[in-house]
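Please go through the protein record below and see whether the fold suits the sequence. Record follows.
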Amino acid sequence: MPKLRPVLLIIVFLAAGCATQKPGRSVATKHVRTTAYTHTEAGGRNNACGQRLSCGVVHSASADWSRYPLGTRFQIISTGEICEIDDYGSALVGTDTIDLYKNTRDGMRRWGVRNVEIKILQWGSPRRSLEILSPRTHKGYVAQMVAALRKQTQGVPQKFKKIES
């Protein structure tokens, strides 16, 4: 059994190496302006996908989807909160501002406007963002996000073909 131990260590090191990020693919941290909103405002209790806004383990957030696509997950460094972009708002289009969902007006007021550092945990999907936004382009601010998203995804195949070997 003693000869098995070095092999086991090599396997553990290899597995750990596979779990780390590749060079040049570091997780982005950014300083952003944040505001807060709640369900008693015009948008109601549902996000842009028709699901309930969340203040659970993962908090709902709203942004310009051409800057932070639907599904983008990030952590607010100062509070540790994990948030996911699942909503958008007309005042956010063309800005780097992220609007954080708070479940009470008092929570919204307490947050106010803050410049915070965030760590991007996972980028969302520009394609999924386009799927949801495209039928809504009758609103000018949505058309603006769609145009920016189409420009970003231009030349990217809709679906990838499986390569047979």
